[in-house]
Specification:
Layout lengths: L2 H8 L2 H9 L1 H25 L7 H24 L8 H29 L9 H32 L19
Helix pairs in contact: 3-4, 3-6, 4-5, 5-6
Length: 175
Amino acid sequence: MSAVDSVLARIPQPCRSLAIRHRELLKFGIVGAITFFIDTGIFYTLKLTILSPKPVTSKVIAVLAATIVSYVLNREWSFRTRGGRRPHHEATLYFVISGIAVGMYSAPLWISRYLLHLQTPFTSRLVEEIADFTSGQIIGLLVGMAFRWWAFRKWVFPAEQPDGRAAPRDRISTP
């Protein structure tokens, strides 16, 4: 029995059928949670050490590292029953869309810091840290994640190929 099957067996039946129906979204969310911790760890490590005067640069580097991990996990787990594109084409689309998402992840932090001036000396260090976390790790993450979910399903891991044929299901796994 796989790990997914053992978890599903413990979920009450009404929730189990909902989880099975939305398993791609749940897997995408789990991958997002894993990469959130990677992103947050790298962001704060860089922001509080070698890149302290450059929080947006720290954020971009953190998102790029998390995106690489995200690609592998999404391709091999979240969207493994979708696709049909050649791996290099799929990877190119994934990283182009993720590049757009980096801007979406970083924009709220940039707005917070440089338009709203929520940084020292204009505000206290505590307010700066709360604003950085809220704008960079919550608002930016939600905006970027919503965009990536939609774009990945539409272009990177489509249910059908661009010519309208159904995508091959050679990577199907049981729920």
